[in-house]
Design brief:
7-stranded mixed β-sheet
């Protein structure tokens, strides 16, 4: 049974930092692309960052230079380090796994999803 479990969300002031984690089980983690997505109230889900099995990363422009995606294959864990957070980063953040991903920030390319973790940034 595939499971993705996120943690690390919370409430911070603008300029603060958070690190999200996503522990995966039930599939060969190092063969899949992994991504972080977010959805703010009233908005569509947005791809934030991704990492493919070869370690290549992709970021949406709005987080470049502030967020870093990484993974520990030995622990089947995906991370998202978020620095210099802004109020517009407020959203529910989801991790996702996809076996055959071409467009790494496109949510329909991913098959497995976590339950999400809330990130709230106050001004």
């Amino acid at each position: 049974q595939v499971q993705l479990v996120e943690s690390g969300g919370g409430s911070v002031e603008a300029g603060g930092s958070l690190r999200l984690s996503c522990v995966s089980s039930g599939f060969r983690y190092n063969r899949w692309s992994m991504g972080w997505f977010r959805q703010a109230p009233g908005k569509e889900r947005e791809g934030v960052a991704s990492i493919d099995p070869d370690g290549r990363t992709t970021y949406v422009d709005s987080v470049k230079g502030r967020f870093t995606i990484s993974q520990d294959n030995a622990k089947n864990t995906l991370y998202l380090q978020m620095n210099n957070l802004k109020p517009e980063d407020t959203a529910v953040y989801y991790c996702a796994a996809g076996r055959y991903v071409a467009d790494h920030l496109r949510d329909i390319e991913y098959e497995q999803w976590g339950q999400g973790t809330q990130v709230t940034v106050s001004s």
